[in-house]
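Dear Dr. L.,

I hope this message finds you well. Following up on our conversation about the binding site, I have prepared a predicted three-dimensional model of the protein together with zinc ion. For your records, I am including the exact sequence and ligand specification that went into the calculation, followed by the structure tokens. Please feel free to forward this to your student if that is useful.
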Amino acid sequence: MQQSTAVIRSRRVVLPDGERPADVLIRDGRIEQIAAHGSLLAGDAQLAELIDLGNTALLPGLVDTHVHVNEPGRTEWEGFATATRAAAAGGVTTIIDMPLNSIPPTTTVAGLEIKRKIAEGQAWVDLGFWGGAVPGNTGDLEGLHRAGVFGFKSFLAPSGVDEFPHVEQADLEAALTEQARIGALAIIHAEDPAVLDAAPHTPGVHYRDFLASRPDDAEAAAVARLLDTARRTGARVHILHVSSAAVLPLLAQARADGVQVTAETCPHYLTLAAEEVPDGDTAFKCCPPIRDESNRDLLWAALAAGEFIGIVSDHSPSTPDVKLLKEYGGNGDFLAAWGGIASLQLGLPAIWTEARRRGHALSDVVRWMSEGPASLVGLTGTKGAIAVGCDADLVAFDPDAEFAVDPHGLHHRNPVTPYAGKTLTGSVTTTWLRGRVVDVHAAPFGRQILSNR
Ligand code: ZN
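The resulting structure of the complex is given below.
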């Protein structure tokens, strides 16, 4: 493949130390130089191309470490081609695939190899894989770690799919002990099954009833137990998709005690609220659930204070029928519907819309959605920043463009999203992967990436 040299010029380049006008020189897919705006000339014989974005912002591509692709096994829910096209269209240039809801799950090296083979030639963005730590596979973790997975996901409560069972305390101890030994990162779905079991379970179309079935205490109890186990085993742990602000003091205390813990949250917890969920609109169902507005404000305060390493999508799509969506003939029962939010393509505009309203800058969004997630998976210096030596994974972003969300206009496989009909601010106009423009209608050139930890 011919790699050209190019300069991308913008009055709003979001660099690690802030936003300013600059020229970014790209050579052989990497960022070679960052120079003063207007200083690198197209007339220079060695420069093949000058792309002047004017006032359109230039951001590093987003790194989304929490995506459920579902292929093979549930490819009708989502697949590598559709998920990575949605990613590219949304300014996400690296995704790390979760070890479930594909069949097989990524709990053995053989399972990983199956996924890697199927993903070949179907990735419009760069793609890595998480492994899974489930009861009985402690002996598989080292092999998966050596094969390049970025860490291991475990559930403390039932995952929703039979082939990926949750860990009881003894399994968790074994998994974290082994991960401490091999130096892997444990990523955890933290809801406590006993608290969930004791909560009221009222079926029906009322979101409030569903919310009562997944109380804040379920998250807080699970996080407390996990942190205690991490403290004893010395494992490095990451709390996935924090929805309840009740876990924040636990995280702060654990950090003060020297536990190696990070946490993430998601666009839907930061931009949606329980108060606005219409009866029967199960596109809003996810676990843990979207909570109320006052909780959302606390999550934003924690984000601003640096308590979350990043914001990632937890893109977990399904077909409309298992969502029990009314417009597809379902009964809109929140308790029985599949729990998962599908909106990989909308994370950046959703967060930017709300972040701007709350007085945050584009550089904050980049810290939360590019730099932070890249650092979580050890990709700092390669991904997630406009910095010399990094891959030229870049996004042209018009921060003032407004658009109404049409579920049928999105690239993910099934036209389901809780943002349907909402007006969002901020539009991705071009995505570059290693210096090349990504065209979702042309052949893909995403690569599979491995953890080098
Ligand atoms: Zn998930």
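In brief: Residues 66, 68, 98, 314, 316 surround zinc ion (CB under 6 Å).

With kind regards,
A. P.
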